[in-house]
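Title: Prediction job returns without error message
Component: structure pipeline
Severity: low
Priority: P3
Assignee: unassigned

Description:
Job completed but the reporter wants confirmation the result is attached to the right record. Sequence as submitted:
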Amino acid sequence: MSRVLIAGGGAAGMFAAVAAAENGHEVHIFEKNEKLGKKLFITGKGRCNLTNACDMDALFSSVVTNRKFLYSSFYGFTNLDTIDFFRKLGLATKVERGGRVFPASDHSSDVIRSLEREMGRLGVKVHLRSEIRDIRTDAGKFHGFLLADGTKVQGDACVIATGGLAYPSTGSTGDGYRWARRIGHSVTELSPALVPLQTEESWAPRLQGLSLRNVTVRIWDRSKKLYEEFGEMLFTHYGVSGPVIISVVGKALKSGPLRLTIDLKPALTYEELDRRLLRDFSDNQNRRFRNALGKLFPAKLIPIMIELSGIDPEKKVNEISREERRRLLSLMKELALTVTNLRGYGEAIITRGGVATKEVHPGTMESKIVSGVYFAGEILDTDALTGGFNLQIAWSTARLAGQSIL
């Protein structure tokens, strides 16, 4: 039996603790916050999108960075295994749009409580308000933690599951990256990911607070499409946010601004939308243009669409030319914004970049540099799209790390 020390009491830390304890190890979690799972608590707007119910091909295709590194961990503990794991702990789940899996209760606290109960059952010792200053190694082997109060804690192995830099209010201050560098690991370039976008156009802030549902968002680097997603988005004082607005575009932005287009009516082709518009115009033929758009757009969006279309708002609908109608149609199918920057870590869901995967054994999550040191979750240079995929990375890598400790 080994004495296993876990750095971080978030999703990956708790899961690694359960896996190690199942193997009969003495397990200690050290968490600097006053409670476990602080970031997990706010995940998915407090509902906790804990995984995705898609097939394995879709699971892998949703990984943006270092997909192949995750083969062993994903196949060793799949998304369906995650659902089954929580079910056995008494947590009922439900599947929503896009395969997103949530607790049936819609409370992330139920996910945390189920993990806490399981750790208690397995005898995991939890140390709250216990900040780790550094990890102690000698001759390429792990020896223990040095706590902020000067206490030295001995251990045979550790799992570093401190997360990244996203949501610093939850205690994510990048400590794990500093420790990894000190023991010889490379840390790739870090940046906020799954984060709202800043845009250039002056009209966007005028729509602050407006939520658009059932739209398709596309992001382009010149003529190359980088991203496409259907769902809900939100206008803000700086640009755009919401479930479909995520930054798979961080690296692309370095070479200049990107183009974002919103299809306001994705269920209709251009021709179908034209027929719909003609019907609406026919029903309102004697009304002024500004008064004929109530069935097409939310009230807050109407002045913007009129302005961008260049059509005189006082013009009667039956006087609108074919060319003017086509301009309006183009706007409805491709309302365009210029993406200039990402928001910061305070609004990011995850961190892109992390401990270089080439320096970690993919079959065990153990460091190739220092024996007895394992990594799990967001600290690794792996990330995925929104939809429960990043939490699945946390569960799978943590499970593999905890089970691999001898």
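Comment from assignee: result matches the submitted record. The chain has a mean pLDDT of 94.
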